[in-house]
């Protein structure tokens, strides 16, 4: 009994009833147009006062509603109403205007059903409660029996008069049952008529893939720039602390490198976060490239105590900007890994060379100096591999011949040696 009462008068039933009333309100303009058509056809001047003519006008208006529902904005409006009032899972409904005519036709079918059920339930909601209220109070209000309300003559009998309150309550329950059943039917049909089509699912998958690509790119940028800067600054500060009293020149050099590293990193961080700022028109610092900052990167890394021997056999200015940018990040992460795992004063060999149509980047450091892996580590090498793969290149990393070697090959259109 409690479940039946919840089905008729529960919160969900009441919200669906409101949804039906909104459908009836949307149906009114189409009914008025139907009256304009039905009146001359039936040669009647009083369509509004005739229930059969009103029903005929309603029947004429529904096809007009179906035609107007073919417009693209009908589906977003309908989906918003269903999500808010019908208790349908949002994942079962499509977002945005329909992409195909088949989806538009399904939307038109839904819109017509919504207005059809809504118009009927709205009419019942206007007519039934007053009639039920009269039946309920009829035995105790004698004036109603004597008035000209057009009540059935059977109510003049005593037994019928005694049962009229029961009939009034039953009429209200019947109205609630019709509204609940209609709302339940619309909720069941909504996913089939307003649900995503294969084209919608494909578009959603493409949007998710694009969002994921942006997130991964931002994660790589933050990891490479901020992670490298923190590692370098930590080692620079540690080295400066150890020789604070004995080598003031090195300390000044280390502090200058810390200042330069943090300043550049703040600019890069602002550039990366600028992608996340919607409507931010401020200019952001460009991403660093080999051509713009290879020497600065090496200088800052060496200031932290890492002994880097660099062999550059190509002119970075001849590289495509995209390749130069990704190559810079790969070199930066390779040196950062050496800083993190091998420690300061570790010799690192860096080689940037051109081989045919490939740019080859190699870093090597002794494996004997490599410490234990950090918990949760490995993101740097994964980021390097992702960068290489996105450009159609390859990445190899691991111990070989007593050294830890990282080799990345990136395809390029043309590599020229320094002139």
From TrEMBL:
Matches recorded under InterPro entries: HATPase_C_sf (IPR036890), Sensor_HK_TwoCompSys (IPR050482), Sig_transdc_His_kin_sub3_dim/P (IPR011712)
EC number in record: 2.7.13.3
Catalysed reaction equations from the record: ATP + protein L-histidine = ADP + protein N-phospho-L-histidine
Keywords: ATP-binding, Kinase, Membrane, Nucleotide-binding, Phosphoprotein, Transferase, Transmembrane, Transmembrane helix, Two-component regulatory system
Residue span, Signal transduction histidine kinase subgroup 3 dimerisation and phosphoacceptor domain: 215-280
Residues covered by region (Disordered): 361-380
Gene3D superfamilies per record: 1.20.5.1930, Histidine kinase-like ATPase, C-terminal domain
Pfam families: HisKA_3
GO CC annotation: membrane
Biased composition (Polar residues): 361-370
Class in the EC hierarchy, top level: transferase
Transmembrane segments: 20-41, 53-73, 113-138, 158-181
Protein's UniProt keywords contain Lipid biosynthesis: no
A GO molecular-function annotation: phosphorelay sensor kinase activity
Protein name stated in the entry: histidine kinase
Species this protein is from: Streptomyces albiflavescens
Higher taxonomy: Bacteria, Bacillati, Actinomycetota, Actinomycetes, Kitasatosporales
